[in-house]
UniProtKB/TrEMBL annotation:
Residues 83-152 form the PDZ domain. Belongs to the peptidase S41A family. One of its GO terms (molecular function) is endopeptidase activity. NCBIfam families: prc (TIGR00225). The lineage of its organism: Bacteria, Pseudomonadati, Bacteroidota, Flavobacteriia, Flavobacteriales. It comes from Flavobacterium yafengii. This is S41 family peptidase.
Length: 545
């Protein structure tokens, strides 16, 4: 129970927090003071007079988070417990289990166990459902379950997990896990080097430089840098990676804000490795933030040909601000701009549609900019490749399959039906695709499209209002029509879905390394990149060299 003293005690904290937040987006201090006074009076009277006992901390937490949710998804508030749980580690090294996990209801799902790391050594596989960690049942533990894997090196943790419906146990021995920024590099052919950059931690530039120098030592005369699915990371590492290919004192990115101190220009500061080697950068719709800085800067400087599909468009810059009592605000302070002046950000959170979603700039409203050699490039959010490939774009139906684990769960079933595949690369046949569609049907897979969700919500409201019986026939007709449409979309995007199924199958048997080995021989974006590099005149024509 909270005493009135505690209620009064929290108010100055609230006021100071709101003053800081308010000042970050409005300099009308009278208006800020007025709104704070209204809020503190309301908060005090609410807690004093409400019919049931209230929890002031919980109320305030929801109030702040609700306020920030109206701005953008990157501006967030962390209460004391959030700050303790939210441990961002940019070194690439941490004590852990070496696996990608996601929470689903009362289980932790293993999405990927990294080769030769603790989870892999303990025998965990993708698709395993962890139900207990040590003495803690996840059904009883609603907090961030990752903290249950914390401990010193060599700490032994017993876990229980479900695999294909059967409960099993194993023991994980914690170790130092190094998450590499460059998980793979190799020569594609006698002259072409290939580097995968998966994220931008503190070792990103160092690892990329090592890979580049080794490939050059091995005879590589041109480079493909793969930034697909790279969500970004440290800004300075993006600048340093560009610096491998361009001279000192080149502007790579600027940040612009209404607050002068947040306006910054980031330039290269070191001697480059190679300013002449032909370079191609591959991006897709999941390449974001720092990935877009690298692709955009090297495109604007006419230093690299960008291949693939338009990148994500995450051009908002955040910084953490420590507040009182161990709380923290991560706040958007500025936007990223490439050397030509293009804004990377795709969604405008100051403008919302009728559903409250941020509006994306329409192509007809894109603005033209010029690269150093006069090539025309456009803003509109994200980086538009010099060579766009239709097959590199993802369709809404495949995005739904990925988001809701349709492909992941199907391949889990496939893996246990085909235990002896080993290093062989299978062919995903038409029969396999039919089997996949049947699997989705049997599992009653939900695509959760906006139309599907709206239809389900309509029935839920109808049931609440007790009119569902009068509309059930029409509802079933609409649902059937929607399912037919989704089935048609599956068929229309069969090639893309087959490729994603195959990618997931290869990862299950051969880990990420096996997938990259497959890519350098078979991936269409890589093949196109090699083709451009093999045709020196085409490469120079694109860049106007």
């Amino acid at each position: 129970m909270y005493s009135f003293f505690k209620k009064k005690f929290i108010l100055p904290v609230v006021a100071s927090a709101f003053l800081f937040i308010g000042a970050s987006f409005k300099d009308d201090f009278f208006e800020i003071a007025k709104q704070i006074e209204i809020f503190t009076t309301l908060f005090k009277e609410l807690n004093r007079n409400y019919v049931d006992e209230t929890n002031p901390g919980e109320l305030m937490d929801k109030a702040i988070k609700g306020m920030l949710a109206n701005l953008d998804p990157y501006t967030v508030y962390f209460n004391e417990q959030d700050v303790v749980r939210f441990k961002i580690n940019n070194t690439g090294e941490y004590t852990g289990i070496g696996a990608l996990l996601t929470r689903k209801e009362d289980k932790l799902i293993v999405k990927e166990a990294y080769k030769n790391f603790p989870a892999d050594k303990a025998g965990l596989k993708a698709g395993d459902e962890i139900t207990q960690i040590g003495d803690v049942l996840l059904s009883d533990f609603k907090e961030d379950a990752s903290q249950l894997f914390k401990g010193a090196k060599n700490t032994k943790i017993d876990i229980k997990y479900i695999r294909q419906g059967k409960m099993s146990t194993t023991q994980i021995v914690l170790d130092e896990v190094e998450i590499k920024s460059v998980p793979f590099f190799a020569k594609i052919d006698d002259k072409t080097g290939y580097i995968v950059l998966s994220h931008f931690n503190k070792k990103a530039a160092f690892e990329t430089k090592e890979a580049l120098e080794q490939l050059k030592k091995d005879g590589a005369e041109r480079i493909i840098l793969d930034l697909r699915d790279n969500p970004g990371g440290l800004l300075n590492e993006a600048v340093n990676i560009c610096n491998l290919f361009v001279p000192k004192n080149e502007i790579i990115v600027t940040t612009k804000s209404k607050i002068e101190k947040h306006n910054s220009t980031y330039k290269t500061s070191k001697d480059p490795v190679d300013t002449e080697i032909p370079l191609i950068i591959i991006v897709n719709g999941r390449s974001a933030s720092a990935s877009e800085i690298v692709a955009g800067a090297l495109q604007d400087l006419d230093r690299a040909v960008v291949v693939g599909s338009r990148s994500f468009g995450k051009g908002l810059v955040q910084r953490p601000v420590d507040l009182t009592y161990g709380t923290q605000l991560k706040v958007t302070i500025s936007r990223y701009y490439t050397p030509s002046g293009r804004c990377i950000q795709a969604l405008d959170y100051t403008r919302k549609d009728t559903n409250g979603k941020a509006i994306k700039t329409e192509e007809k409203n894109y603005n033209a900019f010029k690269t150093r050699k006069g090539r025309t490039v456009y803003d509109g959010g994200g980086i538009q490749p010099d060579v766009e490939l239709e097959e590199a774009k993802s369709s809404p139906i495949t995005d739904a399959l990925i988001k809701n684990d349709g492909i992941f769960n199907y391949v889990t079933s496939y893996y246990y039906k085909n235990p002896d595949l080993g290093n062989r690369i299978p062919t995903v046949t038409d029969a396999d695709f039919l089997d996949f569609k049947q699997y989705l049907k049997v599992q009653k897979f939900s695509f959760d499209t906006e139309t599907e969700l709206a239809l389900k919500n309509t029935l839920a409201v109808a049931k609440k209002e007790k009119i569902d019986e009068s509309i059930i026939t029409e509802y079933q007709q609409l649902l059937t029509a929607l399912q037919k449409s989704e089935n048609a979309l599956l068929d229309k995007n069969q090639k893309e879905i087959k490729n994603l199924i195959l990618d997931e199958i290869i990862k299950r048997y051969q880990y990420q390394e096996g997938l990259y080995q497959y890519y350098i021989k078979n991936n269409s974006e890589i093949k196109k990149s090699v083709s451009i590099l093999n045709n020196n005149s085409e490469y120079k024509t694109i860049l106007k060299i």
